[in-house]
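Feature request, filed as a ticket because there's no other form

It would be nice if the structure record came with a short human-readable summary line next to the tokens. Right now we just get the raw output. Example of a typical job, pasted below so the devs can see what we mean:
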Amino acid sequence: MLVRTQLSFLVLAAGLAAAACSGGTGTASAPTSDTASTAGAPASTPEPAAATATTSSSVPSTPAPAPTDPTPSASPDAASTLPQGDESVDLDPADFTTDIDNPYWPMAPGTRWTYREEEDDEVKDVVVIVTDQTKEVANGVTARVVRDTVTLDGEIIEDTFDWYAQDGDGNVWYLGEDTAEFEGGEITTRDGSFEAGVDGALPGIAMPGDPRPGLAYRQEFYEGQAEDNGEVLSVEELAETPFGQFDSVLLTKDTITLEPDVQEFKLYAPGVGPVLVLSVSGGGGGREELVSMDQAPAGAGTGPLGSPNA
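Raw output as currently delivered:
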């Protein structure tokens, strides 16, 4: 599953060690490229020099409160029910919707995010489109289909259908993916594909409905193939990408049980979704940043794997 600054890592690490920091496959109508200044209100503090996520040298003794605007809707005990590891869950399909409006990752059909990913001296383009299509997965939940296409020098190297749905508490669930890697236009592997309810695969949380520092959860679980985890570190970060500067940004730490040396920090701007991914261990120091956000043409992202716009 997925989303991908130069950053003052020493300062960030100090804040993250205390698990509290200071200061994203649209909204009901997807913002265009000039919405960066409004999607997350521009920071009132001076722009950090050569940093796109900042922390304060004074770490609060208690977790910072969740942002008051927008406020995800969630029941008081919603956080305690988020799945961990290989815990089974009993989901009621009637409790789910494909109208995903979680403030930190709204998915209105037609929304398109374009990212630039830099890693190991390579620059990749990543295009994520919320399609108008849905899919009923094996566990009975109907999910929104989101297309995620990665290209290198104009050639598709990875193409994925991701499946998401939102429950009554505002949690966005990740229900599986149909993915393929390509070389020379030919599929080389389908590894990583899974569907909740098939062969023991379990759904996970893509974005909590009530994110608070210290909240941990499973993102996906398919034993031996996909075992990813997330933890909320802060809801008061700053972030800057070519698309704009944002405040009240949600920061998570993402890890992989099967690859314990791998760790990423992901930042989500209210009203926008994922804006920045930083690989800080086991991933070559990569950076994935939001370049643009707009409305894709009708039917975009609905073609077969390898031909997203066919």
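Something like this underneath would help us a lot:
Confidence is low (pLDDT under 50) at residues 1-79.
Residues 24 and 89 are 26 Å apart (CA to CA).
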